[in-house]
Amino acid sequence: MSPMTRRQLLAWAAAGGATALLSGCSTPGTVSPNTGPTIAPAAAGERITLTYWAWLKDLQRVADVWNADHPNVQVEAVWIPGGNDGGYQKLYSALAAGGGPDLAQVEMRTLPEFLLVNGLVDLRRYGADEVASRYNETLWNQVSYVDGVYGIPQDSGPMALYYRPDLLDRVGAKPPATWDEWFQVAGAVREADMYLDCFALDDASWFAAMATQAGASWFRVDGDRWIVDMTDDATLETARFFDRAIDEGVMTTSYSQFSPAWFAAAAKDSIASLAGASWGDALLQGVSGAEGKWRVAPLPRWGSEGYGSTFQGGSTAAVLANSAHPREALEFAVWMTTSDAGIDAMIEHSGIGWSPNDAYIGARRQQPSEFFGGQNYNEEVFVPAAKEQNNEWQWWPLTQQTFNILADGFRAKASGGTLVDAVVQGQRDVITAFRNKGLRIEAAS
C-alpha cells in the first residue's frame, strides 16, 4: 500500500473547502491538533480522567480493570449510538463545539472522514510506532495510511465459512475449498431444498469483502488525487460470480445474513452454510436448536490470485482532536487492545470482534467450543485467517456513501439488473459524489 501524506489528503478538499467535505456534519474552523508542539504528559501525581465514547456494551467494566491499577489515570466510558446510527454525528458536533471525548470508537473505514475535518490526533507524535509490532499488519496498515497513525486497532472481523456438516452430508459434500467448488455444492444443496448462503442486496459491505479477498483494491493515491478502480478484474469477476449464483437460483436474495427471516430459515435446516466474519459465531448461537450442529472451515479461495481470507468490520480506539491528554489516552488504548487483561475484559464484557493482537486472541477463544461441537475453531481457522488478508486494501472518504450507492444499484437485481452493471454505474456515481465534496478523483485508466 502506498502511504499518503496529510498534505495530499487535505489537498483533495481544496476546491470545496473543509466545511463542505462531509454530508450531515460541520466542523468549520477546526484546527489540526497535529501542528505545533506535542502536549506534555500529566504532572507526576496529578490525577486525570479520560473519557471514552463508544457503542460497545459494558465498556465501563473494561475500563474498571484499568482503573484499579491506574489510580491517577481513570477512564470513564460513555455509551453512544452506533456510528452511522447517530454516534458519529455526536462526535462531529462535539468537535465543532471545541469539545468531545479523549477517545472514541471509530470504524477503520471511517477514519478518513474524521481526518478530513482535523478530528484525530496523530498518535505517531506520541510514540505509536513503538507498539506497531503488537498489532496485526493488515490492521495497522489501515490506521496508518497517511503520514501518521490515526487510531489504535480495537477489533476486526476476519472471515471464514460457517457450515452444517449434517446438511452437507445429505448431498455428499464437504466444505468447499474454492469458490468454484462452492458453486457446485450450492447447486447440490439447492436441489435438496436448502441454500448454501444468501446475498444481501441492501448491504454492499459483504460484497466488498468478497472482492477484497479476490484481490481488489478500489482506491489508491496518485499525487494529490484519488484513483478509483471499482471495475478491476477482481471486482467484476466477483460480481459475475454472484450474478450467476443468484440467476441460477443457488443463492437467495430473499433475506440477509442474521435477519429474522434468516434465523427462521436456519432453524428449519434450510441454511447449510454462511460466509461470515469471526463475530458471527455469537450470532449463530441465536439459531433455535443449533447447539453442536455448526462447524467452521476456511473461507473458499478465489483461485491462485485471491487471498485465504478477508475481513468484514473493524473498529479503532481513536484519540480525538480536543483531548488534553493524548499520551495517556494512547497508553490506555494500547493496554485495552494488546494486554491479556484488556483483551479478556473486552471479550467478556463487550463482546468485541477479533483481537487486533496476533499474539493473544483471548483466553476464552483458545478453548474448544461446545456450540461448535468441540471444535477449537478460533485457533484452527480464525488465527490463520487473520494473517491471510489483502494488505493492499485502503479505506477512503465517503465509504458509507459508496456502499449506499452500490446497494442502490444492487437492489435493481430484483427487477432484472445485474451486479456488474451496478458496480460499473456505482463507480461513476462515486466519482460524482467525490467531486461534489470538492475531492479530486479520477478513474483508473
From TrEMBL:
<dbReference type="InterPro" id="IPR006059">
    <property type="entry name" value="SBP"/>
</dbReference>
<dbReference type="Pfam" id="PF01547">
    <property type="entry name" value="SBP_bac_1"/>
</dbReference>
<keyword id="KW-0449">Lipoprotein</keyword>
<keyword id="KW-1003">Cell membrane</keyword>
<feature type="signal peptide">
    <location>
        <begin position="1"/>
        <end position="20"/>
    </location>
</feature>
<protein>
    <submittedName>
        <fullName>Carbohydrate ABC transporter substrate-binding protein (CUT1 family)</fullName>
    </submittedName>
</protein>
<dbReference type="InterPro" id="IPR050490">
    <property type="entry name" value="Bact_solute-bd_prot1"/>
</dbReference>
<dbReference type="InterPro" id="IPR006311">
    <property type="entry name" value="TAT_signal"/>
</dbReference>
<keyword id="KW-0732">Signal</keyword>
<keyword id="KW-0472">Membrane</keyword>
<keyword id="KW-0564">Palmitate</keyword>
